[in-house]
Amino acid sequence: MAIVIIRQDDKIELWKKALLAQQPDLEVYSYLEEHPKERIKMALVWKHPEGALANYPNLKLIASSGAGVDFIFEDETAPKNLPITRVVDDMLAKDMSEHVLAVILSHLKNLDRYRVNQTKGIWKPIQYRRISDFTVGIMGLGALGRELASDLVKYDFKVQGWANSKKEIEGVKCFVGESGFQGFLETTQILVCLLPLTDATSGILNKNLFKQLPNGAFVINVARGGHLVDEDLLEMLNNGYLSGAGLDVYHQEPLPKEHPFWSHEKIQMTPHYASVSDTNSVVPQILENYDRLLNGSSLLNEVMMDKGY
Ligand code: NDP
């Protein structure tokens, strides 16, 4: 019985070492090395090359080493009917929360605009805004959205959220499903997308949605590039309806050099690095799930196959 790690970045050895540090007798391989394919029971994956999961006749579990699983569903050659698990981790949630707070404060206190002025040698005070005057609306109140919501309440923001099912979070006004969407949007001044990318949420950040936000709203997408209709965001920024956007994720990553986001003065960009799995923090739940798989017990953080998240 063995685990194979499949990912296209330079982190395979990092993950292998972290797994072996916590369980030295583990049989674990990089998909790039010679390995016995029939012994593989679990694939630990992150944006694997399409087709790579089809090579394992005895595979029983596909484990995402991050919170998202959209890339697994997008791979049509991945074996169907296998359970998929994902990462739910306090450190990942905290890192995301800190990132979003930084983007919001940068906007409210004009740090993004001062940075541009600095490069031009311009000394110009710009009226700042106060946290207590703003309502942040979070789309998605799962592992990440819920943590962010609670943290923002502590910072004195007015906070509301929207999810598929009803939620109770102290200090947070919660809206549910389609019927709650309009009420959520019309009172949200800073919108944060923390939805999973599924058929139901693809392209959800579009012109129709932006128009339902109050004039001057700010939009933060830290979920997936596929949630956003790029042209609609540009149009609503350029016509002055939206005051700005903070983007961490894009349709194509790295974002092509010619994309208009790069040079847009109302867009704060980061390179899909809001929050990444810390191996030491995440490895225990990966090993726990491997153990559960081998023992036939129920798995942690299993994805709902019908919903795609
Ligand atoms: P969860 O699965 O824990 O939470 C998803 C939330 O979205 C749930 O509250 C769910 O509702 C809600 N939701 C899903 N579909 C809909 C819908 N159609 N309408 C309304 N609400 C919906 O995910 P996480 O919080 O762990 O992660 C969210 C996403 O963040 C990931 O999928 C990933 O894409 C992204 N991410 C980005 C990172 C980055 O660095 N930029 C890092 C990590 C994650 P309900 O609770 O009712 O099911």
Outline of this structure?
Keywords: NAD, Oxidoreductase, Pyruvate. The protein has helices spanning 12-22, 70-74, 90-108, 111-119, 143-154, 177-186, 207-212, 230-238, 279-295, and strands at residues 2-7, 28-30, 40-46, 61-64, 84-85, 135-139, 158-163, 172-176, 190-193, 218-221, 244-247, 267-269.
Q: Would you write up a description of this structure?
A:
It contains nine helices and twelve strands. Helix 3 crosses helix 5. It is an alpha/beta fold and 309 residues long. The site of NADPH dihydro-nicotinamide-adenine-dinucleotide phosphate has 29 residues, from helix 5.
What is the chain-wise order of helices and strands? EHEEEHEHHEHEEHEHEHEEH
Bound ions, cofactors and other small molecules, one mention each: NADPH dihydro-nicotinamide-adenine-dinucleotide phosphate
Radius of gyration: 21 Å
Number of separate structural domains: 2
Number of strands: 12
Main sheet characteristics: 7 strands, parallel
Low-confidence stretches: none
Strand order of the largest sheet: 8-7-6-9-10-11-12
CATH C-level label of the largest domain:
Alpha Beta
Per-chain topology:
Layout (H helix, E strand, L loop, with lengths): L1 E6 L4 H11 L5 E3 L9 E7 L14 E4 L5 H5 L9 E2 L4 H19 L2 H9 L15 E5 L3 H12 L3 E6 L8 E5 H10 L3 E4 L13 H6 L5 E4 L8 H9 L5 E4 L19 E3 L9 H17 L14
Parallel strand pairs: 1-2, 1-3, 3-4, 4-5, 6-7, 6-9, 7-8, 9-10, 10-11, 11-12
Helix pairs in contact: 1-9, 3-5
This protein binds NADPH dihydro-nicotinamide-adenine-dinucleotide phosphate.
List keywords for this structure.
single chain; 309 residues; alpha/beta; Rossmann fold; seven-stranded parallel sheet; five-stranded parallel sheet; 9 helices; 12 strands; 32% helix; elongated; binds NADPH dihydro-nicotinamide-adenine-dinucleotide phosphate; D-isomer_DH_CS; NAD(P)-bd_dom_sf; oxidoreductase activity, acting on the CH-OH group of donors, NAD or NADP as acceptor; NAD binding; Glyoxylate/hydroxypyruvate reductase A
